[in-house]
Amino acid sequence: MSAPIRLGTRRSALAQAQSGQVAAALEAVIGRPVDLVPITSEGDTNRASLSEIGGQGIFATRLREALTAGECDFLVHSLKDLPTAQPDGLVIAATPKREDARDVAITRGGTPLHELRAGSTVGTGAPRRIAQVRRRAPQARVVDIRGNVDSRLERVASGELDAIILAAAGLSRLGSNSPLRREELGLTEWPTAPGQGALAVETTADAPLELLAALGRLDDEDTRIAVTAERAILAGLEAGCQAPMAAHAVVTGDSIRIRTVVYQPDGDRRIGLDVTHPLNRGYIRRNGSGNGADAADGADPMHEIRDIGMSAAHRLLEQGAADLLPRE
Predict the structure, then answer these.
(1) pLDDT tens digit string along 28-45?
(2) Is 5-99+193-321 a domain of CATH 3.40.190.10?
(3) Is residue 1 scored above 60 in pLDDT?
(4) Which of the residues 22, 107, 251, 252 has the least number of beta carbons within 10 Å of its own beta carbon?
(5) Domain parsing of the chain, residue ranges
(6) Three-state SS across the chain?
(7) Active-site residue 81, yes or no?
(8) Looking at the domain 103-185, which fold is it?
(9) What is the mean pLDDT of the chain?
């Protein structure tokens, strides 16, 4: 039997759950076993606030070092945690079909976020979510928290916190069956981070063609188009992945709709954009999915999509978004 393919993953329960799902899908495609290789990142050991230590790449750097050192054959990341600049020699080989991109508010009794009593405590460490909570529930007090999903849920169950904000995708991938109550926060009024709910499958540009081709079969075209546009907005704003901004794109047929918002950190001000653009599906399909196995002439099938995202970022900047954002 062929040697197992090694998948590098963070050690957290969520990271191992989502990596396990990708491993199972790849095994079905390539007919070889896939072994998880747990790797400890700085984000797993440094318990300081992400806003203090800089969330940009904190979960990815050690994994990428392991990949380039040959400790594993490919990686699975939560796409929203990845810096927008792709390192030389590495490629995003696939973006599997996206899970639910929404945030959810978790409470003990099911009180909607905007109805929490004055002085209620809401736990989250993300600047974007902090700004959104301050807009939705200005009477509440935001508490900066870190930790895995179970430890966060326990802080609500014990009464230490009245609510927390989590990603719906993470709860789904963990199969969480907590008795706590969930309030789904709609993407129209509560857009989420670029790439939220999506995974990035990354490997080296010189990986064996068999592996690149197999990983490419896990790619979902609509997901890749949507997240490419979202991350291009983030790159165009020159803001890190911990910036108080949101971008969510939806692909329908031959068009893409993008909603994006930049928030003042205290939530008092926001600048938003809602635009729809046509897509050249034929060009994208003729030139590959952008997964490291592109056309021989070097065509970039996602060039048009990145331009759409960059254009949206430019329009936000024209409206004054730079005044609200920390610079990278």
Answers:
(1) 999 999 999 999 865 555
(2) yes
(3) no
(4) 252
(5) 5-99+193-321, 103-185
(6) CCCCEEEEEECCHHHHHHHHHHHHHHHHHHCCCEEEEEECCHHHHCCCCHHHHCCCCCCCHHHHHHHHCCCCCEEEEEHHHCCCCCCCCEEEEECCCCCCCCEEEEECCCCCHHHCCCCCEEECCCHHHHHHHHHHCCCCEEECCCCCHHHHHHHHHCCCCCEEEEEHHHHHHHCCCCCCEEEEECCCCCCCCCCCCCEEEEEECCCCHHHHHHHHCCCCHHHHHHHHHHHHHHHHCCCCCCCCEEEEEEEECCEEEEEEEEECCCCCCEEEEEEEEECCHHHHHHCCCCCCCCCCCCCCCCHHHHHHHHHHHHHHHHCCHHHCCCCC
(7) yes
(8) D-Maltodextrin-Binding Protein; domain 2 (3.40.190)
(9) 89
